[in-house]
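Issue 218. Parser rejects a valid record. Input:
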Amino acid sequence: MKKVLITLLCLSLIFSAFAACSKDGGKEKAEEHITTQEITTDDAKITESDAINLIKSYSEKELGLTKDEMKECSFLVKSSGVKYEGEYYINVIATIKTAHEDTTNDDGKKVTTYTFDNKGEYFIRYDGKQILARNGDDGKYRELKVKAVPTTKAPEAVSEETSK
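Output the parser choked on:
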């Protein structure tokens, strides 16, 4: 029961972390991230683990992180795609997960809770030809130089996509 409760708590924290990242100083930018339906990532050439590996292949300077943040960060991929400026992207978040073991539940038992401190947000376009990093100062996105896009998709799936 504890594991289920902790898992649900972690998932709710992750979703609230993604919601906090999508908020922007200007209402116009925040509205661009709002969708009424889930955007599937089936058409993306890059998978979740490959998206994380690709973002981790950049230096902390390119990602806008300090050395300490880069060492501590976990990278998470949003389960649905994001539409930004008319294009579809895989959304990767760099976050620092902190465990809090001093929390007690309703029964008075100690439980571990987690908080997530988001340090960076990155978009990888579905075709892999554009990668954006969110600036911490102004919340705008800047383009990163595209590296070779790794893919673990089956060769048949990749060749079918390129023939379309």
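Fixed in the parser; the record now loads. The two ends are 48 Å apart (CA to CA).
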